[in-house]
Structures
1.
Amino acid sequence: MSLRIASLVPSVTELLADLGLIPWLVARTGFCIHPRDGLAAVPKVGGTKDVNLAKLRRLAPSHVVVNVDENERPTVDALRAFVPNVIVTHPCGPQDNFALYRQMADIFGELPEVRSRAEALCAALQQALDTVVPLPPRNVLYCIWREPWMTVARDTYVSRMLALLGWQTLPALDGGPSGAARYPAFDWRDDWLGSVDEVLLSSEPYRFGPAHVEEVKARLAAEGRRAAVRLVDGEMLSWYGSRAIEGVRYLQRLAREPAG
């Protein structure tokens, strides 16, 4: 059986590219955009939540990479009917990337340089993590969607990334291993918002912009509350895989910038 890889996880697609596996990629989602030039010729099979299974079947992948949070369970079940190897990923914190790099090396390590590249990524991530200096505790609200307004539970990758600095996400709840509770909706009248020191508006999956910063400040003021509000790069804080290395460095730069 020849190797034919499909990735339905944008951050893992980038990781596979950095491991030198682009020549074996036969399918990706429309959200798999990095590296742009390297992926231009790789066919798209829909989005992470609306995979075109018929098109993917025609591309005959030998391996498909999926993720617990990004892809729907019925999609994964359908894939198992015609894909010999369905690779499930679920990093829930920056340190989980070590296992992710080595998981890919164990599966594709017979190809040239894959294992050495995976170990190089492990070394680079460890170096980045070793430079992190925790800050005084700070309560943050990390917004990922608007109407309904949604945030992250504390057992998600984003929350644990922010926790490297000592930043705690609110509300103080865990969402469990899978499901909607990991990304809860909230109301600006909720009492716990009075404890928020800073609101972070992510660039994805909802593309927050400058106008939303002013909107959030107004919503807080309407409830008699004040907190710093700023835009953040969602890819840097929520993408695992090789992006996590630069993500840790970005987080440290973010901590040095004055909050708005």
2.
Amino acid sequence: MESQLTILLPVAAVWLTAGVVADGLPRLRNTRVLRRRTGWLLVLALTGMALTAAVLGGGLLSAGATPVDRAAAGLTLAAGPALVAAVCSLRRIRRLRAGAGAFVSAPATPAPHGLRASAAHPLVGLPLQATALATLPAVIAAAGTDLGADPGVTGPAITVGVLAVAAIGVRHALRHSRFAERAQPEAPQSAGTAGALHV
């Protein structure tokens, strides 16, 4: 039991840290800090994917009820969100880092709303945070509390998880929309409106 938890804890910790870092990106107002944090996020996401793939691969290769097998069985739920993170999030994080790197010659430049809108895009943070949430049942089971053993607990636990992911997704979408609106150039005033303002 302890060795299974030892395998799962680093995986969960990396995904949770990546989720926290991704959540804080839109609040960064400096391009230099934004570039540095996206670099951290890229490393964390790649590390989380490598650890998850290593545990799942180890479970496929090993025979019997070894700790690696039990850890891999627990991480099966996280495989889907981790795949979405690999396909969608990594590309967006790299583009975001490149965009922030365009201001490297002026490191004190405030982060434009367009960059912050990209940082708030649901496909940047949501897959990472969903993967972090999906690792928690495996960690809880490895610690000695099996949520799947009691049918009266399994249903509510799944419902809470789905609602949490939906709430996180809505929050990201609202933040992205807010920053995207600020990034839009103001519409030029018509001649009639300009004349009325001068009167």
